[in-house]
């Protein structure tokens, strides 16, 4: 990096406690490092589904001794992009939350707009928008929830590079890029957008300084770094799988036993 060596926590000790099928897999190291950098007291994720991003936030809070709370909001019924699904997804997420994050993680099974009443204005340190991805839906979620984010707080948008079907997160985020000063976007995977709300105390955290730097070279180096960080995490995960397989302890993506006849590593996403 142009600002010196950047050696974040995700490269030092991050071993995901949960690994399930999700296009969020490309951004897990960044999610882990972001929480370590901002030390959030209050996190809200809109659109939890199988919990890959949500539990990465939670894991980072625990492993960095952050005294905070994370709320996951979802109906766990599916939508036009995920299709409908049964209660097994919610039950699995709830079980993982109870097992690993009891006391600092709460699941709100309701519509996003119904959950608004439970949070005060300017109270959220981190908001992750990952619900229905049409242009109108993303715009509505941001418009309704942005007042809940405190000055200096962070808002994440998933799938800002996914120009498929009727996805519109990419289009709305491009509009926001013209309206906000502190904006950053990861282009790899399905894309991840980052906005820092104006105000609050300036941060000396290297990650935030690089993300919102005015130097495009620095920002590009950060993007490249997290592309490689994601690949490194996946390589390490595959190596762990094969070590377990050789010992006869095959594990599936959620820690479930693999059938004895299967010897294929689980997909990354």
Spatial strand arrangement across the major sheet: 3-2-1-4-5-7-6
How many helical elements?
Answer: 9
CATH class: Alpha Beta
Beta-strand residue percentage: 15-25%
Q: Indicate the low-confidence ranges by residue numbers.
A: 250-264
CATH topology: Rossmann fold
**Shape type:** globular
Task: Give the integer mean of the pLDDT values.
Answer: 89
CATH architecture annotation: 3-Layer(aba) Sandwich
Order of helices and strands: HHEHEHEHEHEHEEHH
The main sheet comes to: 7 strands, mixed
Distance between the termini: 29 Å
Tally of separate domains? 1
Total number of beta strands: 7
In short:
The protein has helices at residues 9-13, 28-38, 52-63, 88-101, 112-115, 135-145, 169-177, 206-211, 216-246; strands at 42-46, 69-74, 105-109, 124-129, 149-158, 182-186, 192-196. By secondary structure, it is an alpha/beta fold. It has one domain: 3-Layer(aba) Sandwich (Rossmann fold).
Care to describe what's here?
- This protein has 269 residues and is an alpha/beta fold.
- It has one domain (9-209): 3-Layer(aba) Sandwich (Rossmann fold).
- It contains nine helices and seven strands; from the N terminus they run ααβαβαβαβαβαββαα.
- It has helices at residues 9-13, 28-38, 52-63, 88-101, 112-115, 135-145, 169-177, 206-211, 216-246; strands at residues 42-46, 69-74, 105-109, 124-129, 149-158, 182-186, 192-196.
- A seven-stranded mixed sheet has the order 3-2-1-4-5-7-6, with helices on both faces.
- The radius of gyration is 18 Å and the shape is globular.
- Mean pLDDT is 89; it is low at 250-264.
